[in-house]
UniProtKB/TrEMBL annotation:
The keyword Membrane applies. GO terms for cellular component: ATP-binding cassette (ABC) transporter complex. The chain crosses the membrane at residues 12-35, 40-59, 65-86, 98-116, 143-161, 173-194, 200-218, 230-250, 256-275. It is a multi-pass membrane protein. Its main location: membrane. This is Manganese/zinc/iron transport system permease protein. Gene3D superfamilies: ABC transporter involved in vitamin B12 uptake, BtuC.
């Protein structure tokens, strides 16, 4: 099946559109959660949505997506408020509050799910799919609901952009300006619950946490500004969602939700490794250069100190002695000094056996060593 034929399929159209909406809202709202150091928030909200799913089914008596999502939003928002109360009104840290809320609400959801399974309601079939998602069951009417939730979330972000930005970076300064920090943080937390609600049908309760956090983590590696981070996180979320959905359509039998998460996680892995200035690879290169620069400075200043100790700017130092002093081979560093015109090799006296390597600093090398020692002295003071 070609890509054009795939996109003409009704089910695939729904799945791709739903995945794109999920990636969009997750990338935007997840950026604020990451910056507020509440990466566990998505996990808490997604697990807290399970009792809401069950309550929505019990009240509606059937698998009505509107009732189920409304219930998920209600319990997700309630969990957010409970978490904020625990951290604000007690000595609990944020991670402890999130952990308590997550486990409590998820346990309630499991109890309600078990209760529903004993109700002998024919409509309960497939309700447990909300744990891991069931993208293929997405209908066009579901897309309208998901699109409406996404539009509400993005509208709130656009309307309160400056306030959200200030609260995310410096809540204390925002409070000093008279902003309602508690209400803004509550609104941001509830909006993460909105993102979770959008993703329940696609990736489920268990995997939704990764969808909220992963695009923002990847975007944070490439961007230094909130505007760029939010935009890039949205693009990564949309691209990862579409790619995972199409990959699932090409690979029959593979679940869509996990493939979406794996697609976004692959972007995170690449970003953590290759992102300029922050990636692991760039950090390894910086450390390698730092080690070379340090060894270069050590050998240069050692030659200088030996010459000054003997009151002879042209004092020759043997390479073997330098190797022993530094505990490593200095041949490469000495050659680098020679290429830069800072040191030169001189043969030993004719009557000595063998050709020991003797190195002497040039006038340029002496001046460079003095500059290095002067800079190191300033850094120490």
């Amino acid at each position: 099946m070609t890509l054009a034929e795939m996109l003409q399929d009704y089910t695939i159209q729904n799945v791709v559109a739903g995945a794109a909406l999920l990636g969009l809202v997750s990338g935007v709202l997840g950026s604020f959660a990451v910056l507020r150091r509440q990466s566990l928030l998505g996990d808490t909200m997604s697990h807290a949505a399970l009792p809401g799913v069950c309550l929505g089914f019990i009240i509606a008596g059937t698998r009505d997506i509107g009732s189920i999502l409304a219930g998920a939003l209600l319990t997700g928002a309630l969990a957010a408020l409970v978490m904020l109360m625990l951290t604000r009104l007690s000595r609990l840290k944020t991670d402890a509050g999130l952990g308590i809320t997550l486990s409590t609400f998820f346990a309630m959801g499991v109890v309600l799910l078990t209760h529903i399974q004993g109700m002998n309601n024919a409509s309960q079939g497939g309700l447990d799919a909300f744990l891991f998602g069931q993208a293929a069951a997405t209908l066009r009417s579901d897309l309208w609901i998901m699109g409406g939730i996404t539009l509400i979330a993005l509208t709130l972000v656009a309307a309160l952009w400056k306030e959200f930005k200030l609260v995310s970076f410096d809540a204390e300064f925002a409070a000093s300006l008279g902003l309602p920090v508690v209400w803004l943080e509550t609104l941001l937390t509830v909006m993460v619950a909105l993102a979770v609600v959008v993703g329940l049908q696609m990736v489920g309760v268990v995997l939704m946490a990764a969808m909220v956090i992963a695009p923002a983590v990847a975007a944070r590696q490439w961007s230094h500004r909130l505007e760029g981070m939010v935009l890039l996180a949205a693009l990564i979320g949309v691209a990862g969602g579409i790619f995972g959905a199409l990959l699932s359509a090409l690979s029959r039998g593979l679940a869509t939700g996990p493939l979406i998460i794996l697609s976004v996680s692959a972007v995170v892995l690449v970003s953590l490794t290759l992102a300029p200035e922050r990636g692991f690879a760039w950090e390894a290169v910086r450390r390698w250069h730092a080690r070379r620069r340090l060894r270069y400075q050590q050998v240069l200043t050692t030659l200088y100190r030996l010459a000054m100790h003997h009151d002879d700017p042209g004092f020759p130092s043997e390479q073997g002695m330098l190797d022993t002093y530094h505990g490593l081979r200095t041949r490469g560093v000495l050659r680098q000094l020679a290429r830069r015109g800072l040191a030169e090799w001189r043969p030993g006296p004719p009557d000595e056996p063998g050709p020991p390597r003797r190195w002497v600093l040039t006038s340029a090398g002496i001046a460079e060593a003095e500059r290095v020692l002067d800079r190191l002295g300033q850094e120490e003071t």
